[in-house]
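Attaching the record inline, Q. Sequence:
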Amino acid sequence: MRYGYWLPVFGGWLRNVENENMQASWSYVKRLAQRSEAIGFDMTLIAELNLNDIKGVAAPSLDAWSTAAALAAVTERLELMVAVRPTFHLPALLAKQAANIDHISNVLRTLNVVSSWWAGEARKYGVTFEQHDDRYARTSEWLDVLDGTWKQDHFSYSGKYYRLEDNILEPKPVSKPRPTLYAGGESPAAKELIAEKCDAYLMHGDPPERVSEKIKDLRERRARHQLPPLKFGVAGYAVVRETQREAEDEVRRITDVQQSAAGYANYQEWLAGTQLEQRVSLEDYSVSNRGLRSGLVGTPEQVALRLAEFEKAGVDLVLLQFSPQFEEMENFARTIIQHDSSVSTTTAHRAPA
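Structure, as predicted:
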């Protein structure tokens, strides 16, 4: 199991808590990233939205790509999973940017391809916003161009949405055969696209048994394309406390839903612009990405057992959210990651030759 976390580019993850003591600032995320790799985290996901859908559109939010480039220069081994929305980026230009960041970091880098959902944000930034399946059709061509420019010399392409003539992209990415492409989605169009053209499937929070069903479905879809196996990641909001009661008290605090909160209208637009497999509750509204459904709430022992269930289901990566980020990240690393590492090391030393 690899451990990652969502970089708090929006200043927090809780829609009902106004101030989480997590500034949407370069100094804060730089401090987080540098500390996270020192305490055992493998990856951070840098979300891409030009408006803040957690704290309200008037609240600050960091740009994903300039933040990623800056973090690449000040971290040593932390993998950066940068979100990218095809409607906001021409594919060949994005391929150039990603290759450059790959060289700055000289460590495997990852993209999370997101086919957009927020029509209001697109209008405010002058970007064309298409219907759901049209967005996925665009993303399909976008991925073709991305892959071609990374792997080929003098690449040309002619499609409905993009046209390139004799593209030259040098230097190519360090990551071979290409940076890993994650994507998420629960619609049939999304699943087919991921199975055919991506490397990994990133899921919203859900219990391990539900995640197991999704993994089985994507593995079957992937096999029909006769491609190498997918990797699988799942989102989760972690609350680790000394007692279960303390953990449950914290969950009650953060799910005290206030429908007048600044992010509620944006959340309703997200629901209207996506095709989800399950009905979403107001508790899901309280924490983004259905993080509480993963059930990473309780004592260190309880959370570790839950993580083991995800690993058994086929999950390679958990992408976690915490609040407040710095303090809770430290606690999770001490009680879960470092404990797992010490147990693994002890077991290895005791193994017979």
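The longest strand covers residues 231-237. The longest helix spans residues 325-350.

More tomorrow.
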